[in-house]
Amino acid sequence: MKKYTRIAALGISAALVVAACGSDDDEADDAAADDSTEEASDSASASDSASASASEPAPESDIVLGIAYDTGGRGDGTFNDSAGAGADRAVSELGVELEELEAATADDRQPNLQTLTDAGANPIVAIGFAFGDALAEVAPANPDTNYAIVDGFIPDAPENVQLIAFAEEEGSFLVGAAAALACGCDQLGFIGGQEIDLIKKFEAGYTAGAEAINPDVTVEVQYLGAAGDNNAWAAPDRAREIANAWYADGVEVIYTAAGGSGQGTIEAAVESEAWAIGVDSDQYLTATPEQQERILTSMLKRVDSSVFALAEAATGGEFAGGPAPIVFDLSTDGVGYSTEGGYLDEFVDQLEDLKAQIIAGDIEVPTAP
Question: Residue 215: is it exposed, middle or buried by C-beta count within 10 angstroms (0-12/13-18/19+)?
């Protein structure tokens, strides 16, 4: 089995920032650190490229791409669905074969990685930081298979593991600014899933973006579970309860970074005729017409691009591994905001100016509240 050694530009349009980072735990909280950088590559929009190549047959490839989804799997409307979109694009555009498994419980993560390995998948992408411990066991035992983990941090990651990180705080800054611009209000809300540093990046960016527009804004914050509480990602009823209470108290926009729990916030926004902000995927696209009227925007975390970029590199016999993650940020369109529905049309120029300032380094977005 061929050993891949590096990642290079294979028709991928934008450069990725590769940063060395460290962490005190296995929660992937600092996977997007920016201590040192080098150029790699990002992929263009999945939807644009897919439509452009719809009439072309996929090339033949002997690559078997493995995707290990965390709980919720395809159909979660956010994180896992974005990964699935990238995998589907790799199948249609690169001709790779796809093997995928969902972890129904935490105990499934390591067996699923091993099952995909035994099935001949290479590379295998673990979707979510929760796979960190499992991958730390499986990867060293299977040195001829290449792995990647989204949002994961593995101390001294071996050469057959690629860490993939995102600058969630940057995209969250823009949706925070959008919230403040659209509502012209002094009260916003943020609901997080597990109370871990990774999700606090979303909170920190959102609050900073809102304050950049309105220094007097108050952002209510509540988390659905402590670190390790996987129910936090699948508690829409709890999110709905919190959101309804906040909307009743005058909060006008709520941003939820909590996986499938965010659906509860969207439902509450419909009930209260208020605004919700989606996360990871463009949730407007999978919402009902009634819900679409209440989704102001979504913070886009391009897990699809990361999965496709990895598959594209693998088809060229190239792979980057070790302790330095590939970081997808605003400069590579690795994060961003959606404009479906047209609710931000009058504010796009201001948001794009803020985006440019972040990319230029004129605005430094915090990664912790």
Answer: exposed
**What whole-number distance in Å separates Cα of residue 19 and Cα of residue 13?**
19
User: Could you report the per-residue pLDDT of 180-223, keeping only the tens digit for each?
Assistant: 999 999 999 999 999 999 999 999 999 999 999 999 999 999 99
Place of tokens 């049309």: 345
Distance of CA 71 to the CA centre of its chain: 15
Give the span between the Cα atoms of 315 and 61, in whole angstroms.
7
Q: Which pair of structure tokens corresponds to residue 309?
A: 């970029």
Instruction: State percent of the chain over pLDDT 70.
Output: 84
Query: If pLDDT is split at 50, 70 and 90, which confidence band does 329 have?
Result: very high
What would the 3-class secondary structure string for 244-299 be? Answer: HHHHHCCCCEEEEECHHHHHHHHHHHHHHCCEEEEEECCHHHHCCHHHHCCEEEEE
pTM: 0.79
Instruction: Tell me the pLDDT tens digit for each residue of 121-150.
Output: 999 999 999 999 999 999 999 999 999 999
Average pLDDT over residues 266-288: 96
Residue 256 has pLDDT above 80, yes or no: yes
Contact 29, 198 (CB under 8 A): yes
CA–CA separation, 29 and 24 (whole Å): 9
Give the helix ranges, DSSP H, for the chain: 46-52, 79-94, 109-118, 132-141, 168-183, 197-213, 236-248, 262-272, 289-292, 303-315, 348-360
Question: What letter does residue 364 receive in the DSSP assignment?
Answer: -
Q: Residue 86: which residues within 8 A CB-CB, separation 6 or more?
A: 46, 303, 304, 305, 306, 307, 308, 311
CA dihedral 280, 285, 286, 291 (to 10 degrees): 100
